[in-house]
Specification:
5-stranded mixed β-sheet; alpha+beta; 6 helices; globular; 248 residues; DUF6699; 31% helix
Length: 248
């Protein structure tokens, strides 16, 4: 009798657990923020607040030489078959209205704000990709070229030539919603305002990346961020380090 009661109680407990899981899954299904946060395995507490752009588990494939609407979702992605709505979530729960992007792969710092009229939502994941692409489409300045070493000059020219020979981008998202017309604000630190160039023979900032033009996600690296900050400058409230990957 006692063992039978134990099995009966265990069965009831399993039913309650299953019901609770069904309820939680239903809530996640209708909440893109919770869905994004819970769908992607993240490796540490510092990257958990950058879903779904946290390295190294970025669920999309994106070549920064192409517009943001060209990203594709591999079969292994939890968002496979969907449009860009999973990127229309705040980058962080704090909903920052300005973040700074830096990288060990390029020498610039980009301050990004949300799209006009979207201050309450803060900077979104889609804002980051859109602004990062726009920033890297700017022509390399004469000063930047002059500061680069000779081997970097050769790398820049090779990258420029590869870019000019690329095929037109094909929208890899399953929805045209990935194509956006309104851009988030992006301010370039210590730089003049130059109109972006695209398929021109000019060397662009994206060419600085060489073959490492695949978006690899965002990470927190306070040590690098402090070292990267120019002496005397005020420390930004939110800084993220962009990682890149080599072309396949």
């Amino acid at each position: 009798m006692w063992n039978g009661g134990t099995h009966q109680n265990q069965g009831a407990s399993d039913m309650c657990t299953a019901a609770r899981h069904d309820k939680e899954n239903a809530a996640i299904k209708h909440d893109p923020v919770r869905r994004a946060k819970n769908s992607i395995p993240l490796i540490d507490k510092d990257t958990q607040i950058a879903y779904p752009l946290a390295a190294p588990c970025v669920p999309l494939v994106y070549d920064l030489r192409y517009p943001p609407n060209s990203f594709c979702l591999p079969p292994s992605s939890p968002y496979e078959g969907r449009g860009s709505e999973f990127l229309r979530v705040p980058l962080t729960p704090a909903r920052h209205n300005q973040i700074r992007l830096i990288s060990q792969d390029f020498p610039w710092a980009f301050n990004i704000g949300p799209k006009p009229g979207a201050a309450e939502q803060g900077v979104t994941c889609l804002d980051v990709l859109t602004a990062l692409h726009a920033a890297l489409q700017r022509p390399l300045s004469d000063t930047e070229w002059g500061a680069a070493a000779e081997d970097k000059h050769a790398s820049l020219v090779r990258a420029r030539d590869r870019r000019l020979n690329m095929k037109p981008a094909v929208c890899g998202s399953s929805s045209t919603e990935a194509c956006t017309t309104a851009r988030p604000r992006v301010r370039f630190v210590s730089d003049v305002d130059v109109q972006p160039a695209r398929r021109e023979p000019s060397i662009l900032r994206v060419d600085w990346l060489g073959s490492r033009v695949m978006f690899g996600g965002l990470v927190k690296d306070e040590t690098f961020a402090r070292r990267r900050l120019i002496p005397g400058a005020r420390e930004p409230s939110e800084t993220w380090v962009v990682r890149f990957q080599n072309l396949p």
